[in-house]
Amino acid sequence: MKHLLLIATLVVLAGCSTGPLPASLQRPAEIQDNPMVEELNELKPLNGPVMTVGLYSFTDKTGQRKPAENVANLSSAVTQGAEVWVIDALLQAGNGTWFEVVERIGMDHVIKERQLIRNTRENYEKDNATPLQPMKFAGILIEGGIVGYDSNVTTGGTGARYFGIGTAAEYRIDTVTVAMRLVSVSTGRILVSVAAEKTIASYRTGADAFKFLDLGTKALEIETGYSVNEPTNYAVREAIEQAVIELIYQGADQDLWKFKEEE
Fold this sequence. Notes:
Distance between the termini: 76 Å
Radius of gyration: 27 Å
Strand content: 25-35%
Number of strands: 7
Order of helices and strands: HHEEHEHEEEEH
Oligomer: single chain
């Protein structure tokens, strides 16, 4: 009976171990539909022709390694392929009415494939070889990268222990920052420069009991708990999408372009 009472007390304490915590962590975050994607799609169309942009790189400039306790971790803290999210955000802006993205990251592959097509046509079609269409050039470039990753910006938690029975809840907030700028190819002038920041929340809760029974000849030990970590890649994606949205609005404020008004 005493053992059952001990376990029941542990379960009750585990249910109370989540507060007080920041409002954003009262309920562990779940990855649902990305609100930034919806905001990108709902942007008003560009009043004018679609802008052709090129992206050569969007790299990790932080040099940070994934945080780990008491372990030398060689894994990078953030994704090394952030350009994927930049291209995706540009193509989704205003349901594809703002930007046309030309391939630049895999430029070598495109050139090799075009050379292969040209050689094949010349060998088989001789003088009647069909010429390739000229490659499209970009009028503006997207530059930037992931410029900051700060771990343990905010940490905290709660805990209690009574006669060997205890519960604890801990949280940690990291921050990732991206910077993005729009550059004119013809003049080299930086037209717009923005930065966006996204927090990364980690949460852990648990309960344990450690008790000696029968004058110390027996020991009872019970542990339970769980943790929730918001994916860093998801945070990087949201920060990039927010930067693209801010880029568009700042350009409109500077009269670089205008939104198309509904008729």
